[in-house]
Amino acid sequence: MSELKNDRFLRALMKQPVDTTPIWIMRQAGRYLPEYREVRAKAGGFMDLCENADLACEVTMQPLERYDLDAAILFSDILTIPDAMGLGLYFAEGEGPKFERPLKTLADVQKIAIPDPEDELRYVMNAVRTIRKELNGKVPLIGFSGSPWTLATYMVEGGTTKDFGKVKGMMFSNPQAMHLLLDKLAQSVTSYLNAQIAAGAQAVMVFDTWGGVLSDEKYEEFSLRYMQQIVSGLTREADGRKVPVTLFTKGGGRWLEKMAATGCDALGLDWTQDISQARQRVGDAVALQGNMDPSVLYAEPEVIKSEAKKVLDGFGEGPGHIFNLGHGIHQHIDPDKVNVLVDSVHEYGKTS
Amino acid sequence: MSELKNDRFLRALMKQPVDTTPIWIMRQAGRYLPEYREVRAKAGGFMDLCENADLACEVTMQPLERYDLDAAILFSDILTIPDAMGLGLYFAEGEGPKFERPLKTLADVQKIAIPDPEDELRYVMNAVRTIRKELNGKVPLIGFSGSPWTLATYMVEGGTTKDFGKVKGMMFSNPQAMHLLLDKLAQSVTSYLNAQIAAGAQAVMVFDTWGGVLSDEKYEEFSLRYMQQIVSGLTREADGRKVPVTLFTKGGGRWLEKMAATGCDALGLDWTQDISQARQRVGDAVALQGNMDPSVLYAEPEVIKSEAKKVLDGFGEGPGHIFNLGHGIHQHIDPDKVNVLVDSVHEYGKTS
């Protein structure tokens, strides 16, 4: 493997000094980029794009050509694992992801098997290998997965949901089935992320998109516990370098101390949390990633600069901050705005 | 006006001793009830139902006939004010509320006028008067409004939204227009709620459904500040009795102390907040309303009872608790489950 030319991102995750604050952007390879939309149209379905290592690599590299970003993230979907478990993932136009065979009963859960990452999910590992080679040490590559609870919501609901009635129905009425499902998912995510690390991912992130819809008690029992299981089971070193793990629960500001106590290296923050308070709460335990409101990018350059500065000032001096949005970039953002953001973070980040 | 036979709800809002914990349920008059669906079908459109005082009264009374609830809530919509402002509210089948003429510019905002509650919104006041008469002192009647920020989101987005891009775009790029809009809305909500109180509402509640999508700083500037303005402008006494005001920001657990400092009497809590911690944080400043996860009602009676008990135990001893769900009841809940909840709260609430 070629030497890493820009290791700001990995150093910041380990709370080591950096020359300026690193930045990457959730969904940086995505629909706001015209060149992405072109490849996406060429590929056919969204999963066709994920399953083709060359195309997945092409779209992963696109934002790095436009912007001075400090990390690449594997282009893939969080629902690859449930799909590999045989639930039949498909994307209905304008409706988000759906499953042909959602889980309803304990028997359904008992039937599902833990996928072999180098078999059913080999296309993901091939993408990781292709991207890592193409990056050629430019910046580190982030691998990722959905959290067990987040994957379970889609698997039980059969798609996106507004009220989480089915998955919470199973949680309240049939906790045995829910725990069996979450344990299978934690095992699957662990082996999936370890395979990504073996294939070349230099940092990994667990996206707990829906943990925030739980109460304190249920979050600990049904989401955090299984992320803890994953953190404990991950390979934490590759190529003689630490592989940092970041946990991100959207709407999870209440639980930062508990999340930090899992032994992860960093926490992702959504924009609703005050990063200065978050840093006070977690102390030296973890690095922090985030957390500008993605909607700031609808505003003019001056507002983008001042809002980015607020986040940098909020984190304050010293290492351990990776700049990001508090959620994925919206599809209707003008791509030129991202240049304003990236450059102002690098410029202002030198002094903070 | 006839004497109030059950004042548990009003007493609890004032933190006065009660014989058992009062309970009402957000959206208690709604689609989960077959008798509601029947009236709704008969009425035509949803707004036809709101605009007909007799039908609005009929559906308001329905849950009180089935359940031993301690309060009635006016049947209406939070979007009556923007509709009265001339934005053209309509309901597209399966898509939620929409506006024909959403606000885009400062000029759009400058054009809108503050509605006269006894003119453009007279149908709401008529419903309040009809319901109050029909209640005949059985339980108190709650009036309500959306918060300025929440109303503004619909008025600028033109309907429901996933990313709040337009309304936040205006907030970040054109704060002058946004503040003008929010000030007009705060004035409108104040006169609207005061008119509801004059017409017979015995308590009022402000629903800030979308305050939780803001950062700390923006919440204070764009949502809380205008709820404060409303609280300061409300008539707080009617028929020689205090008219308590409750503020509810969904996802607003971070701001309980600040919300309590507005001078309101009670805070609504969504289910993601620990009610025991919430009580510690607000102390004696306000009563608390909530906060069982609405999805618990998908579970069997035993689970409903034990989860309700957890909320009651979480609040602990002493007055100042009004039991409710942490959000509106879901439409697919079995109506018989609500009896289980109401009766177990009243039974267990005696000892707590």
Describe the structure.
The structure is a homodimer of 352-residue chains. Chain A has 352 residues and is an alpha/beta fold. Chain A has one domain (8-349): Alpha-Beta Barrel (TIM Barrel). Helix content of chain A is 48%, strand content 13%. Chain A is built from 15 helices and eleven strands. A seven-stranded parallel β-sheet of chain A has the order 1-4-5-8-9-10-11. A two-stranded antiparallel sheet of chain A has the order 2-3. A two-stranded antiparallel sheet of chain A has the order 6-7. The longest helix of chain A has 25 residues, at 175-199. The two termini of chain A are 33 Å apart. The A-B interface holds A 163-166, 168-169, 171-173, 212-218, 251, 253-254, 271-274, 277, 293-296, 298-300, 303, 307, 310, 330, 332 and B 163-166, 168-169, 171-173, 212-218, 251, 253-254, 271-274, 277, 293-296, 298-300, 303, 307, 310, 330, 332.
Question: What's the helix and strand layout?
Answer:
The structure is a homodimer of 352-residue chains.
Chain A: H1 8-13, H2 34-43, H3 46-51, H4 53-66, E1 72-73, H5 80-87, E2 89-92, E3 96-99, H6 106-111, H7 122-135, E4 141-146, H8 148-157, H9 165-173, H10 175-199, E5 203-208, H11 216-233, E6 237-238, E7 241-242, E8 245-249, H12 256-260, E9 266-268, H13 275-282, E10 287-292, H14 301-315, E11 321-325, H15 335-349
Parallel strand pairs in A: 1-4, 4-5, 5-8, 8-9, 9-10, 10-11
Antiparallel strand pairs in A: 2-3, 6-7
Helix pairs in contact in A: 2-4, 4-7, 8-9, 8-10, 9-10, 10-11, 13-14, 14-15
Q: Which quaternary structure do these chains form? A: homodimer
Tally of individual helices of chain A:
15
CATH secondary-structure class of chain A: Alpha Beta
Shape of chain A: globular
Low-confidence stretches of chain A: none
Order of helices and strands of chain A: HHHHEHEEHHEHHHEHEEEHEHEHEH
Q: How confident overall, as mean pLDDT of chain A?
A: 96
